[in-house]
Every structure is written in structure tokens, then in C-alpha cells.
Amino acid sequence: MDDEFYRIKRLPPYVIAEVNGMRAAARAAGKDIIDLGMGNPDLPPPQHVIDKLCEVAKKPDAHGYSQSKGIPGLRRAQANYYGNRFGVELDPETEVVVTMGSKEGLASLATAITAPGDVVLAPNPSYPIHTFGFIIAGATIRSVPTTPDEHYWRSLDKAMHFTVPRPSVLVVNYPSNPTAEVVDLAFYERLVAWAKENKVWILSDLAYSELYYDGNPTPSIMQVAGAKDVAVEFTSLSKTYSMAGWRMGFAVGNRKLIAAMTRVKSYLDYGAFTPIQAAACAALNGPQDIVEKNRQLYHKRRDVMVEAFGRAGWDIPPPPASMFAWAPLPPAVKDMGSLEFSKQLLTHAEVAVAPGVGYGEDGEGYVRIAMVENEQRLRQAARNVKRYFQSLGINSSAA
Ligand SMILES: Cc1ncc(COP(=O)(O)O)c(C=O)c1O
């Protein structure tokens, strides 16, 4: 019997899982690990959203199969969000689909539109589903940079010129996970023009739409005139409303892509539990003060983290958006590599971070620090790191 499964052979061991395993073992041994590894929000969702979930769950008729593409009210709520936030009009029937988190949405779309032999352009470093969603579908990845500078544009052109068959899809993700880099609307304008010229679909992941810190609201690619001709965009309730475990996300935009994805989903799932969808409506339609409150809270954490780690001897550029800092390894430990450094931090400082190499080879030299513990714990993490640096004989200020 052949147990060399085609898709499984294409999935390498998950690097980040190694650190996660060590973290779990340390915790089981009673250690108080400060977990800045996973982007798992530590904040509760708004109370009225939880209340709506409970209220609808009590209805006897709310427990059957739901609608795979999402209940109409939720698709309307998402269309209203795009209208209010970005001034973008969407048809809830044909241009919006509800997904079980944006991760599932990306994977379903990858399944719908790619086949073995297709080439997909994806950033490196990137959030794993941006590559592995397509690898699972059998496609080949050609990496392009994450940093949106002129080198990025040259890489895109080079990729189109030298790749056979020509790439059919480009994935973009700003604010970026893991690098926290951002783009402005002019970037998206150029990207839409480029995609039209090169006949490439664009998949934009906007999971961090509401977590921006320097006063500039994150733009959507859908704000570009004609974006719907070539693009879809994914958003999520996971971070905006701290609802990561609820598995609620959306794809909006190009009708053909939305239809393809909806079709695949109709074979795979019956949609999220109806009370969750009803509660997601409450999140999008209800009071939005929590969004601003959470933004301020992450902003404060960011400032505390950058300042406290800086004093420990680790210079971390303040992320302009997202819930992550993309931190270069301090020069004195650079040779260790990001995986070993993450393990050492866990063992000796009791702080969990995600090794940059887990996001692609170009993530080497960095670790990703998630701001998912409170300010006091972030300060404690910085003190632990300082002690670890000192134990290595590194003067904090020279680390
Ligand atoms: C860039 C990015 N996209 C998608 C996701 C997945 O989000 P969801 O919970 O909506 O599946 C994450 C989660 O961390 C993310 O960082």
C-alpha cells in the first residue's frame, strides 16, 4: 500500500510547531511561559456579540445546517462594512461570501482556482496559508518579496518574464503577517494596473484591517477603481473583534472568483453554525467602540514592548500595524539562527516567540513577537530577556 501521499509529501514539518511543542512541555512542567508566539488574541469579544450567540443558540430552529455561502443578513452586514469603512459598494449576493475564518477562505479559493502545474506568486516571508493553501492544491509557488519597495516590482516583472507557465495568481497581505509592513492606496492602484496588464488574479489578505497605529487607516485594494475585475480580498473577525476561535471571515470582490469559491465550499461545508453567523452580524452592525478601544490597547502594548525590549538591549522597530513586531535577531546571537534563538529564549527567558524562518527562508534572521499578553507581562518578558542576554555575557546595551 502506498503511503507516500502526494499532498502530504509537499507539506514540510511545521517549523513553528517545534517551538509550540517545547512551550507546551515547559508549561506542563509548571513553567510560567510568557507566550508571544501565536497571534491568538487574549482579549474577549464584545459582550453584546456573546449575548447574541447565546440568544440565537437557544432557538430550537437554529441548529440545522446553515448556508454554505453565509446567511444573507451577514453578507449584507459585510457589504455595509465595506461601504462605511472604505466607500466600496458590494453586491451581497454575488460579491460577498462568508468563510470559516479567512484561512479556510484562502484554502477554498486556492482549491477552486489552481491545479497541479499552475504557478502562484506569494510573498516570502508570509503567513503559511498564503503558500501552503496553493501547495495543497498542487500548485507551485514562486516567491516574491514581502517588502513593497521598487525591488518588489522588479521581482514581479521578473517572475512574469521567466516563469513557465506564467503565474496566474498573486497573493498580497498588508498589513503583513509576519513583517507588519503596510502599503498605501497608490500601491494598490499600481498593483491592480499591473495585474490587469499581466492577466493575474490578486488575492489580498486584509486580516489586520483595523489594527493600525500611526493614524493612517489601512486601505483596501477594493478602493481602487476596477479592482473587482481582478481581485478578491479576505477579512476576518478574528483580530478586529477578538473572535479567533469563532472562525468567521469573508471574501469579497470579483464575481467569478467568489462564484468559484462558493461552488467549492458548497461541496465541502454547510456554513458556520447559524448562531455564530447571527452573532457575527451583531459584531459588524453593532457598536464599534471596541474596535477603537482594542486598537489603542495594542498601540499601548506596542510602545511598552519596544521601549522595554529596547532597554533590555534588543532594538525592535515599532510595527505600524498588525499585532506583531518583526524583530531582527540581536547581532550577538544572529549566528544562532531564528529557530535556535527562539528555543533558547523559551528555555532561558521563558518567553515564546515565533522563529522567522517558519514563515519562509527569507524570514531567517528575525523572530515574530505577538502582542498578545498584557503590558505587565510584556515588561516581565523584557526583564527575562535582559537576564538571558546577561547570562550569555552580553552587555544589554551591546546585545
Ligand atoms: C495574515 C493572516 N491571514 C489570515 C489569518 C487567519 O485568520 P482567520 O482566523 O480569519 O482564519 C491570520 C491569522 O493569524 C493572519 O495573520
From TrEMBL:
Top-rank EC class of the record's enzyme: transferase
EC number: 2.6.1.-
Gene Ontology molecular-function annotations: pyridoxal phosphate binding; transaminase activity
Segments forming domain Aminotransferase class I/classII large: 31-383
Keywords: Aminotransferase, Transferase
Keyword Transferase applies: yes
Source organism superkingdom: Bacteria
Cofactor(s) the protein needs: pyridoxal 5'-phosphate
PROSITE patterns assigned: AA_TRANSFER_CLASS_1
Family: Belongs to the class-I pyridoxal-phosphate-dependent aminotransferase family.
Identification of the protein by name: Aminotransferase
